[in-house]
Specification:
single chain; Metallo-beta-lactamase, Chain A; seven-stranded mixed sheet
């Protein structure tokens, strides 16, 4: 039975991309780096770019779609996105093969079943994703959301690996240099998960099947890897849960 390989190529406000591999094929979730940089990071992790069979797009913000046009053309692969993201990102003007994915409608890709769910973010129709392999391994990705939506909670229960946004420390945002309008956006239910909110979400998602957690989309200005790590580890310790914790960086890949 084929397992899932998970490589966070980079995560943060300067670019996001996750490579999910099964049965020798790879699905790329977001492409927020240039096509050249994305391929460089794939190869640095011993993932052949030719193994990529599809690009998934969570939402239209530039740190998630920057390299989509060039990479999709270079690899000759389809791009999957919600109808709202398709329109907001003008994907039909950028990509030859755009296909819509709907929340709650499973999709077969790379030997996996991919299920999308709505997130809560200031975007047209943002989605999170769950990947299930025939082996029983599963990955859930919850990022760029200001809240754990009911659909996210339902879809991500019983994952074996979980990528969860730990964007900011609330105190660092409130006392930091950002203008008030931006602070209000970040802290809203349509902004980003704080370390505290991520830990609360993890307490609801940490089933007996969960073995690993990775913190995603850490802010360079309003967070530190140590704070995010401590928040998730603290919650798992409180629960008496044995899952391991890692933090994804902007500069270098993180392999689960």
């Amino acid at each position: 039975m084929t397992a899932i390989g998970v490589t966070v190529l980079g995560s943060g406000s300067a670019g996001n991309s996750i490579a999910v591999t099964s049965a020798g094929s790879t699905v790329l979730l977001d492409c927020g780096f240039s096509a050249r940089e994305t391929v460089r990071r794939l190869e640095a992790c011993s993932i052949d770019a030719s193994s990529v069979v599809a690009l998934l797009v969570s939402h239209e913000h530039s740190d998630h779609v920057r390299g989509i046009r060039v990479l999709a053309k270079r690899l000759g692969v389809p791009v999957y996105a919600s109808r709202g993201t398709r329109r907001a990102a003008s994907l039909d003007a950028l990509v030859a093969d755009v296909r819509e994915i709907r929340a709650g409608a499973p999709l077969a890709l790379a030997g996996m079943t991919v299920t999308a769910f709505p997130t809560s973010h200031d975007a047209a129709e943002p989605l999170g994703f769950r990947f299930d392999a025939e082996s029983g391994d599963s990955l859930g990705v919850l990022t760029d959301t200001g809240a754990l939506t009911p659909e996210a909670h339902e879809t991500l229960t019983s994952c074996s690996a979980l990528g969860i946004e730990c964007n900011h420390d609330i105190d660092m945002v409130e006392t930091g240099p950002y203008p008030w309008f931006l602070k209000r956006r970040i802290l809203s239910d349509r902004g980003h998960l704080s370390n505290t909110a991520a830990a609360e979400a993890l307490s609801r998602l940490a089933s007996g099947t969960l073995t690993s957690v990775v913190a995603l989309h850490l802010s360079r200005t309003n967070n530190t890897a140590a704070l995010a790590f401590a928040s998730l580890c603290g919650e798992l310790d409180r629960l008496g849960h044995p899952a391991t914790v890692a933090t994804a960086a902007q500069e270098a890949p993180c392999i689960l």
